Here is the input.
Amino acid sequence: MQFSDLDFHPAEKKLRQFGILLVLFGVLIPFVAWMRGWTGLDYLASPLPLENQTPILLSNTLLWNSVAIYFTSLVLTAWGLAGMANPKLLRLFFVGWMVVAFPIGWTISQGILLLIFVGVFLPIGLFFRLTGRDALHLKRSQESTAWKSGPGPLPPSRYFQQY
Here is the structure.
């Protein structure tokens, strides 16, 4: 994928789908926090809270973290619902998200291709090189020509046998 493949003018259907995803993630964020038991009490009760913070400062930090989680959830859900009603509201956010996500996706795909090449094709190629395999018959022989005679014409009865 190239940067020129990015959709800077997405269709309304795509923007509505993006709005649905925003609503789903907006609902999913506090649900996952609740399922993990992230209330902040675990950090307050731990023997080593954070090195230089008093419990009051730590509880304030955890309070603001939970406020940030629920505020983000609320904003994503509200923006997603508004975007499903009027998809043009989501266009700028969608395009910005795609522009930010593109380099990450490109880097990961190139890294996976590199791993496949280095992990699979390079060892196979080195093994074939060391064993002297020449499946394409590219090595020049002592003959004066590179012409190889084929098996000859097939009998006409073979024409009716496709496989």
About this structure: The radius of gyration is 31 Å. The mean pLDDT is 82. The CA atoms of residues 139 and 154 lie 29 Å apart. DSSP finds four helices and no strands in the chain.
